[in-house]
Amino acid sequence: MLVLGIETSCDETAVALYDSVKGLLADRLFSQVELHAEYGGVVPELAARDHIRKLAPLIEDLLGSAGMTLSDLDGVAYTVGPGLSGALLVGASLGRALAWGLGIPAIGVHHMEGHLLAPMLEQDRPDYPFLALLVSGGHTLLADVAGVGRYSILGESLDDAVGEAFDKAAKLLGLGYPGGPAIARAAESGRPGRFTFPRPMTDRPGLDFSYSGLKTFTLTTAHEQVLDDQTVADIALAFQDAAVDSLVIKCRRALDETGHRALVVAGGVGANRSLRSKLAALAEQEDVRVYFPRPEFCTDNGAMIAQIGCLRLQGGEADSLAVGVRPRWRLSELERPGA
Ligand code: KG4
Ligand code: ZN
């Protein structure tokens, strides 16, 4: 079964071809980062309009690169939520309409399920069950993954997502957008020890997270200082250390509680090098294995959507002709394919 995957939930227009036997065949992405940079964050209306401009040419380019045409497709998958409603609607309407025109099934995919199983796109992948840390601009959660569609949430952020905190802290420090990579870059020349930020939610039991306090701490610290380049770097490092440490501490707890031997890291913040090296150290101490998707599959991409679409279409699921999106959609509402 050959499935076209479409991702337009936020500011990346992304598409991919996934074959049920051969796996990922091709993928293409157009990032809107430059479009939104001058506004310091994603402008939903601009995002939707740009998806309209870029999506169809990107699909043509994708098919051409794989030496295929639309008639080779057996199914279409598109992100249906969570995300920005206007942006989601572009992918959902084009995906649904394409499938209808070709007489093939279509399916709406949960964006976070895509991220959660992105490590399964790699050759070296974990066996079920595993622990998953999902860290993006919209979510921060730890899930027990027993199989496809069998997720239980062990803990999540009570307020801001960790990626959102990176973005907001970067804005406060004048580092621009997107904030995660900007903070990480600035932190490279930061001096350890000049500032120490609290590790939120680590002094109490449980696996939930909180990041709004860290944002306030960054704001207060920034207001007390003259923000020269070195000070910005020092604050960026203190922020990153606190944000990353709180994730690592909760991962250690969750591994102890579940007894799982594999930890999967997914979502945009999974591209953070400090997080990667601290989790690698944790894995060595705890004798577990940690799996990261390649960096381009940590952030939003079409491959993860095509993969889930293929799994679920093969399980016999398909959407009706109605086009709808679910800007808010909890991962725990998902069921197993074919259930
Ligand atoms: O998964 P993603 O591409 O989009 C969704 O939110 O679904 O994640 C984007 C988030 C942004 O908040 C971005 O600042 C953050 O991931 N991010 C990073 C890094 N690269 C991206 N955060 C920390 N360090 C990075 N290197
Ligand atoms: Zn995402």
Question: Can you give keywords for this protein?
Answer:
339 residues; alpha/beta; Nucleotidyltransferase, domain 5; 2 domains; five-stranded mixed β-sheet; 10 strands; binds 5'-O-[(R)-(carboxyoxy)(hydroxy)phosphoryl]adenosine; binds zinc ion
Q: What features would you describe in this structure?
A:
By secondary structure, the protein is an alpha/beta fold. The chain has 2 domains: 2-116 and 300-333, ATPase, nucleotide binding domain (Nucleotidyltransferase, domain 5, 2-Layer Sandwich); 127-292, ATPase, nucleotide binding domain (Nucleotidyltransferase, domain 5), CATH 3.30.420. Helices cover 42% and strands 19% of the residues. It has helices spanning 33-37, 44-65, 85-102, 111-116, 162-172, 179-187, 212-224, 229-258, 273-286, 295-298, 303-314; strands at 2-7, 12-19, 23-31, 75-81, 106-110, 130-135, 140-147, 150-156, 262-266, 289-291. The strands form 2 sheets. The chain has a 5-stranded mixed sheet, with helices on both faces. It has a 5-stranded mixed sheet with strand order 8-7-6-9-10. The chain starts with a strand and ends in a 25-residue tail after the last helix. Bound molecules: 5'-O-[(R)-(carboxyoxy)(hydroxy)phosphoryl]adenosine and zinc ion (ZN). Residues 10, 136-138, 163-164, 166-167, 178-181, 184, 267-269, 271-272, 299-300 line the site of 5'-O-[(R)-(carboxyoxy)(hydroxy)phosphoryl]adenosine.
